[in-house]
Amino acid sequence: MEDPIVVGIDIGTSKICTLVARVENGYNLRILGVGVEPSMGIRKGIVTDIESASRAIERSIEKAERTSGFEINSALVSLAGSHVSSVNSRGVVGISGRVIDQEDVYRALDSAQAVAIPHNREIIHVIQRGFIIDGQDGIRQPIGMHGFRLEVEAHIITAAASTVENLRQCVSGARIEVSQFVLNPLAAGEMVLSETERSMGVAVVDLGAGTTDIAIYINGDVWHTSVIGYGGNSVTSDIAQGLRLPLDVAEEVKLQHGYANLDEIGEEETFSIKSFGSEQPSTVNRRELVNIIEARVEEIFQLVEREIKNSGYDGMLPAGLVLTGGASQLPGIRKLASRVTNLPCRIGKPEKMVGLTDQIASPAYATSVGLLQWAILMSETNQVLTERPGKSRNQTGKKADILGWLKVLLP
Ligand SMILES: Nc1ncnc2c1ncn2[C@@H]1O[C@H](COP(=O)(O)OP(=O)(O)OP(=O)(O)O)[C@@H](O)[C@H]1O
Ligand SMILES: [Mg+2]
Q1: What's the CA-to-centroid distance between 78 and ligand 2, angstroms?
Q2: Ligand 1: centre distance to CA 8 (Å)
Q3: Does 230 fall in a domain?
Q4: pLDDT in tens, 144-203
Q5: How far is CA 307 from each of CA 21, 169, 214, 265, 278, rounded to the nearest angstrom?
Q6: Closest-lying ligand to the alpha carbon of 370?
Q7: Contact, 325 vs 364, CB < 8 A?
Q8: Exposure string (b/e) for 155-169, b if CB count within 10 Å is 16 or more?
Q9: Has residue 333 been placed in a domain?
Q10: In this structure, what DSSP letter does residue 137 have?
Q11: Contact 399, 1 (CB under 8 A)
């Protein structure tokens, strides 16, 4: 059998990134096509202008098609935004003393989905966290065991149906079918977390332009997910306001002179900028800039900490935080995050891939490459099921599926 081809489209607030890769030996990614385009008509995971979003997605796809030589028909697509929410739920089914099989696991997961989900929400992921057989908990893989009663602990992620539909429409406007939506931090987690971190307990924090997305992993599985409505763009607009600069100049100043810790900046450090309305460049004390940046980033991590506390899993994250996303490139951010949350922190970026990796080897592309990792995961495990209301379950993780839903034609 030929190596499968996987395609992911990461639709962010600042950029759209389409990647085409070949899966070698069942798990190695060889990046064949890259299409990065500035994002349009998308803000914090929500479509604000279908027409321009569609065109931007199309341009990104065309670039990836040109570099890879493949025609793309369908892809995994990233999803984020404050319209996403999650609940934990338990499903129960009777077994009557025989050996538990895959069908029983599906039935248990189906029954976990029977929680009250309003009709205006769409289920994006149903993630199994663990099983209980006849009251015995902590079971990771129930298939093949005997029992009378099988319970599954599931994490159900839903999104606003209209928002998902708008996003789907943007992608289909670019003549691509969405084979599955994948929540941003789950894709990022797939890329940047190690097996050990996941089983110890860890949170991945994807600091994007529009949102900061969190996923908490405990005992190897996702236990909690949430989205904070601030990101790198919030920092930029604070700088624009504070220093009275146009947004594009504020962004440039952030990238050139930005830092996360005020106490490390000397009084005498200055730089020059051209501010609104004045012809002459003016001199800015770097402490003034870093003060603005530190305040906002500190606030974001306070919100991250609050999310972790509210989830009830604080104290269960010995592996700490893994920061990723474009805004995690702010120098000094690791130290600030550690100070605010009292957790060890490291920065995660795409690794272990070959091919056209130059442009995407930065934390900003962890979600983009993570989508491809997710495609591989879908092909080899039954851990994650996704269902669209009114449609039969697709992608239950059978090996052959990967080729079926990622149809590609050689030029
Ligand atoms: N060196 C840097 N220092 C600080 N911020 C940076 C740096 N490089 C990029 N950023 C910020 O990262 C953000 C873009 O990150 P990313 O590409 O992950 O966003 P996105 O995926 O488009 O957005 P989202 O996921 O929120 O929809 C921008 O706000 C940008 O200013
Ligand atoms: Mg992103």
Answers
A1: 8
A2: 19
A3: no
A4: 999 999 999 999 999 999 999 999 999 999 999 999 999 999 999 999 999 999 999 999
A5: 34, 32, 9, 30, 43
A6: 2
A7: yes
A8: bbbbbbbebbebbbe
A9: no
A10: E
A11: no
Report, in angstroms and rounded to the nearest whole number, the Rg of the chain calculated over CA atoms: 22
- Residue 407 DSSP label: -
- In-domain check, residue 248: no
Q: How far apart are CA 67 and CA 87, in angstroms?
A: 41
Number of independent structural domains in the chain: 1
Tokens representing 139? 């079971």
CB under 5 Å of ion ligand 2: residues: 12, 208, 367
Q: What is the C-alpha to C-alpha distance for residues 376 and 71, in angstroms, rounded to an integer?
A: 20
Tokens of 128: 């199994």
What does the block give as tokens for 81? 């935004």
Average pLDDT over residues 74-87: 92
Contact 314, 218 (CB under 8 A): no
**pTM for this model (two decimals):** 0.89
Residue positions counted in the chain: 411
Q: Which residues have C-beta atoms less than 6 Å from ligand 1?
A: 12-15, 39, 80, 184, 208-211, 231-233, 236, 251, 254-255, 258, 325-327, 329-330, 364
If DSSP codes are grouped into helix, strand and coil, which group holds residue 68? helix
Confidence of residue 405 (pLDDT cuts 50, 70, 90): very low
Which letter does DSSP use for residue 366 in this model?
A: H
DSSP 3-state assignment of 253?
helix
- Residue 223 tokens, joined: 């236990």
Phi-psi region of 290 (alpha: psi -120 to 50; beta: other; left: phi over 0): alpha
CA distance 9 to 368: 7
* % of the chain surpassing 90 pLDDT: 77
CA distance 328 to 333: 7
Q: What is the CATH number of the domain that holds 146?
A: 3.30.1490.110
Helix (H, G, I), strand (E, B) or coil at 74: strand
Q: Range of 123's domain?
A: 86-157
| Terminal C-alpha separation, the chain | 20
In a domain, 132, yes or no: yes
